[in-house]
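so the lab meeting is tmrw and i was supposed to have these ready like two days ago... anyway. pasting both below. for each one the top line is the aa sequence and the line under it is the structure tokens. i havent really looked at them closely yet so no promises
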Amino acid sequence: MEAKQSTNREAPAGAPAEPAGHPRSGEVIVLMSLCAGTLQAMAAAMNLAVPSIARSGLHPSPTALVWIVDAYLIAFACLLIPGGALADRLGRKGVLLAGLGLFTGGSLLAASAGNVPLLIAGRLVAGAGAALALPVTLGLLTLLVPPARRPHAVATWTASLAVGGILGNVVGGAVLQYLPWQGLFLVFGAAGALLLLTAAVRAPRTPRRPAPLDPAGSVLLAAAIVALIFGLIEGRERGWTSGPVLGSFAAAAVITTVCVLVGLRRRHPLLDPRVFTLRPVRAGTVGVTAAFAGAFAMFYVNAQYLTVAHGYSLALAGCALAPIAVAMTLASRSSTALVRRWGAKRVVALGFAALTVGLAAFSLVGADTPYALYVLCPALALAGIGLALPPLSGGIMTALPADRAGMGSGLNGAAREVGSALGVAAMGTALGANAAGTGAPAADLAAAMDSGFRAVTVAVALAALLVVRWTD
């Protein structure tokens, strides 16, 4: 009987409380967007540092290189939802400052690392800090921005993630062109310290939600995400039908099932499974996952294509990708007005149509495709993401009560990271399958992109059908 009563009491349905808004809401939007963009930029910039680290005195093995890159992603993905729940329970500003402090400390630890284990440890600490801080950035926007301005705030925050990913390539390329790999971590450590000081002074405090922590749920959810991401990372190296990879996917499915059953029995679960009965939550989770799978499939090959096929330096390749950040930003800024005029369903459908066409166009790219034509593919795809993500991310947040803003933003973040891993796995597998090739690197890369983007396009298109159906 008590289980039934607690289910009704804790169910997420119903209109959330609507705060009147903070007098410094504009400042909050800017600060939270800068934090989110910086955390995302670190994930993107790291891929450019791999050749420099491989040639360094650390002498990392190929497996160690994978873990150096993915340690940040794994810690990030595993702790996003627990980080959001902690913010709801312990206070958002305190968790934000703790996260930015860990991000800064982890970056500086990585910069000073004299061996591979210490470098991986620094990446894990930085990723854990990012996981604590990122859900707070969206949660604070939801709580402190007036309802009338909230769609604009979410659109700005969404654009900051994509722009941060692209600027990570630009800044990372410029830094690594002139400095050793340690310089990249020093730059992000300095950026984290500046954001930490600014947030300590300017970020407002918000009420806490008294509720017990859920350590068992945190462990189960983290284990499920680790198992899934391990399979995605190792699949392209070990083979998708190898025992460890299939075992990791099976473990992810079993642990997720246990996590759902445990969540349904608890009064204050870390992630309430009942939220997925809400159409906006289903649409947002699947839509964000699919969009970031497409985005990171592009991010994985963009710089490689420009350096291999066109002979660009890392710095020039990063700058050459700047126009796609402009396309994403303009689309995100237009999304709110279009939703008011046409409704969320039509805007999401238009966004996913543009994303699908942009991804499909990559299969037409050849070794001699001019830059002016090539850049249209990611520009169109990211413009589509810019249109679709604000109503999808905002839908998750507005469907949940205000005191569960951290859980909603953590769910947003976990969907992004899983989608990113899916996109990288798809393109990494395609590039690995064409590694032998013809001996012409540019032609081999174009062939790998053709097969990889065909698969990604089909997957995103199928997901889009569900997302549009669930969007009101």
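ok protien two:
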Amino acid sequence: MTHGEHHEGLELLNELKKEFEATIIHELLPGILHNFANPLNGIMGRSKLLQKRAYDHFKVGSPEDPVGVPVSAGEEKIIKDIDLIAKETDRLFDLFNDVAGKIYRLQDLSLQKINVSHLIKCEVAFFNFYLDFKHTVEKELRLDWDVPDITGIPADYSMAISTIIRYSMSAMKMSPAKKLVVTTCHDEKYVYSVFEDTGIHELDQEDKDFLSTLAPSRQPFYHLDGKSGLFNALSLLAKYHVRVDLDSTMDSYCLRLRIPC
């Protein structure tokens, strides 16, 4: 095979990969999650049942209210192992829900009520699957759980918030300090979401002025030196009359969203 033939084959392979990747979110992942859900629910149910039976058999109360009845070292080890299995099963179920929730949000195009604080909590939990974000970025969530619901399409808000977080991730990649702080609060008319990070940003005054007057756009922004995603995310929210305020220097970054409720 000549070099040209090899190159042509590589282009065909890459094109087929693109077609395959286009099916992942809307066709493949829902099926994968569905196929995992049934055995996972079975494992959860059996682990809880096994845990209860062990406590009953060794007469040491229950997992919720253990009683300090003396048992042998071997029996104690069995109980601890079963407790650990039940705990890790719960953790696996939470991780599964983090992925499933994200996929379902991206597919949900219906107009409905959304709790911004709960959505942000779920989006940050999903981002822990990015290992750099999980292990190198300090996260602080200051969430107001009494915020009123807003009205919107889950896919819009999920994609916009995750893009904002991903923009912060990129900005912090070369920063010695990596911290993301997300705050929510509200008043009678608005829900406020504030994103602060310690990244290195290159947003000038023209960018700030443009974002503060951003209008809904049907055409995506391209070639904005790493800022395209942020501009597209905020443009997506403009149809909900979300107001954007941005304070950014080389040492600090604060993005505020004012969302009508």
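from a quick look at the 2nd one: The chain has two domains: 3-105, 111-260. The CA atoms of residues 95 and 184 lie 24 Å apart. will dig more after coffe
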